[in-house]
């Protein structure tokens, strides 16, 4: 007589609620069991007249975090210990960071390097204490970690949170950053209300951009004529695209002011 090992499958049903206190596990378990029985009777889970598949125990839990849910799912193969919980939490945090929903590819590797360099130089300007090599390590791999940050996060920091225009070291860096800023996808990011500090004030932001354009166009400059021309062209392109994005917002604000009753 040949014994055949029973192959078991696990299924996870994800239910979103306003909070763990909103979950009645007894009612939910009963509802899931009822739904499974209907599905089985209708032949949705197994072929009609096939009684060889048995539904095992159904458990309903309300994990407080993704790491807790993963630990619950793996409980048959890993120990539930403080060390295991820490390992799972670190793994989940790494996955979320590396594969965030907003990890949209906008920048090339070279463009990322230019922005990271700008962030480092900006950070050094106000955080330097003599020996400042550590700042670059922190920006790239430390608590900031922009070497692994999604493009959107890097763009937001470089242009919204702490604009990098003032401390770019040379014309090549200035042109590189202006070319990045002129990309429509980049302007869409920095003008989005989803950012912590989106660009809303065109005049104020243009003053920041001028910190990169000014050194290449001011009297006594040493920039190559072709670089000066490109900087001016990029500046004009950036302003035009910003006006296209922000113009409707400014018009709405002006309309609100015009409709405000006067006392």
UniProtKB/TrEMBL annotation:
Q: What is this protein's name?
A: Uncharacterized protein
Organism expressing this protein natively: Massilia orientalis
| Classification of source organism | Bacteria, Pseudomonadati, Pseudomonadota, Betaproteobacteria, Burkholderiales
